[in-house]
Amino acid sequence: MIVTTTESIENFGISSYEGIVFGEVISGINLVKDNDAGLLNKIDERYQKYENILSDSRGVVLEEMKLKAAELGADAIVGVKMDYETLGSDNGMIIVTCSGTAVKVKTFM
What we know:
Layout: E1 2-3, E2 12-28, H1 40-71, E3 76-87, E4 93-107
Parallel strand pairs: 1-3
Antiparallel strand pairs: 2-4, 3-4
């Protein structure tokens, strides 16, 4: 399935719009768990974990969106937008959301 942030797909035409599809995932994070000053390796490890959580979350929301688009009979998703927010009183969770328009496409000959 083609997934793009653009409103059109080169060499394809949109034959029908099937609806807006979404993907959401909430993950627990805690970057400030250890308050030991001067432990650069610990900080680097925490940032790497945070990056991994973001990367994994992006993959999950995109796959969720593709499944929903496929259920609508779509061939592609255009106009994809992704957003990140922290949640919780201690900002201990992150929500990754994305949305786009599920479409059916036809190739230009």
